[in-house]
């Protein structure tokens, strides 16, 4: 047993003696100690990694330009691979890859084997003209080469920009253009729900009109994908000719490690910049402390490599810690709804890290699926991505964790690079809907809109204070003004505005209530209402469009689109289908509205701004409130009929 029930409080658990003994932090005093001197706390953590050259100053602050480990030289790939081999752990398994088709065998790569592949591929990239500082696009499914590619980029100091493989060609192109990537690494395809998905076709479309000159293609399917002479080359052919010797490049701690595009409140995604040293330190420390990583552990983070969760807790975090990371190619319902539990039994997974939306889906599928498998290897469970409801938490804790394992609810963002707020496994408490406290060495609080700190129980906004955590983003690629406006306009340059609503209890444990901007969380995917709007607006039949989110019992939230068609165009199911196809083309399936409601008019202010507040209330069946500032209040009555609103 790793947890104990609180004898007095309902739904509250604490670490058992056994958990406290094994955990990296089990003394409450760590919080006060780290808060008294955050820079000293992170410096001690940095000393756990390898530095080619130690830093001269640990932290430097200037408005919108904070730096960690200034003057230090390190390398993410060296710390992920070479360091463990030098310590004699080269034969430990680094990656287990589970393909979706059940008749295909799992692949295991030791640290030595992964090191060799990464070194070869780093030389392949150099051979294609990639130099330190050049951005490299990665558009890969969940195959081991995704880890190889990211690590190879890190090895030579070429920042990667991973694009989620289900994103559309247009989304891929936008990101390649913004990043100025000259090389793209992709695959011919992959398996999803038993079907072969043709990724190369999308990659070809996305590359057209981008600065990409060379495309490396990993063969996952039958190799029949068309290759463009002079531009495309097969990964396995390039690898066969490459030298396995490629010493890691000493990188400046503040050199760009990678870009990852995420949704802001506008239609244009932001290229979030993460630098090398601070990111390495926080990724290593949070993976170790939060998931209680120890030698021999088999850690499974079920996110996709296309998200920050995949970057930090499939690739860098576990590998920096020298444990085994599990990569699963496919869908949780292939070949049946028991696949996750079959994988845990088969590979004896010790920690599982997944999203509330997945848990709610498993609850729907029923207890009989996990009941078929032996899940006793699990020691700890994690969740991330959105607020978790009490029922889903309890089901995860009881049915998957067998009532033995702590559930660590981790709040963080693409921008923070690594976990920020959660309970520590050796300290607790573990309470449904409560994420916990800011990680030691991270200062944050709940503020009101004027920046005043709020007391227990009072709802406000979560902010993070200077000295900022080492992995916090250093900027938005190519757009310093947007960076300042997005995160530091609200409370000034010394307090990072998270855009999340939150409150805390008397002990300082934080409950995240959700985004306060127009960013949705759809089945764990971050999406701006404005992105869906601008996608729909690309269809010439659309005159006006407004998108709002509606709560959904499995996906958390779903987009609902209100569409006004151009004059003379009749509404029909065909147009609905066509609009869905437009979204598919512009964003990909993750952006598809749950419902498209055709309307004769949308509510607007006198200055012509769409009143999304009213639409939001309508789809939630809540009172629409004051309509006196509307230009066209009569539009609301018609809308009430169309959405079946009764409040
Ligand atoms: C937004 C960031 C960072 C990992 C995946 C999402 C929401 C994230 C939690 C949590 C409640 C959460 C926030 C945040 N969120 N974790 N444990 N409890 N909400 O990364 O795509 O950058 O989205 O996800 O609203 O701002 P992302």
CATH fold field value of the domain at 516-643 = GMP Synthetase, Chain A, domain 3
Bound ligands, named by name, code or SMILES:
5'-O-[(S)-butoxy(hydroxy)phosphoryl]adenosine
Low-confidence stretches: none
Task: Give the % helix.
Answer: 25-40%
Main attributes of the structure:
single chain; 647 residues; alpha/beta; GMP Synthetase, Chain A, domain 3; 8-stranded mixed beta sheet; 7-stranded mixed beta sheet; 20 helices; 31% helix; 24% strand; globular; binds 5'-O-[(S)-butoxy(hydroxy)phosphoryl]adenosine
Summarize the structure.
With 647 residues, the protein is α/β, with parallel strands linked by helices. A hairpin with a 2-residue loop joins strand 11 and strand 12. The chain is globular, with a radius of gyration of 24 Å.
What does this structure look like?
- The chain is of the alpha/beta class and 647 residues long.
- It has a domain at 516-643: ANL, C-terminal domain (GMP Synthetase, Chain A, domain 3, 2-Layer Sandwich), CATH 3.30.300.
- It has 20 helices and 34 strands.
- The strands form 10 sheets. Strands 14-13-10-8-9-16-17-27 form an 8-stranded mixed β-sheet, sandwiched between helices.
- Helix 2 (29-36) crosses helix 3 (38-46).
- The longest helix is centred in the N-terminal third of the chain and has 17 residues, at 111-127.
- The model has no long low-confidence stretch (mean pLDDT 96).
- The structure holds 5'-O-[(S)-butoxy(hydroxy)phosphoryl]adenosine (WT7).
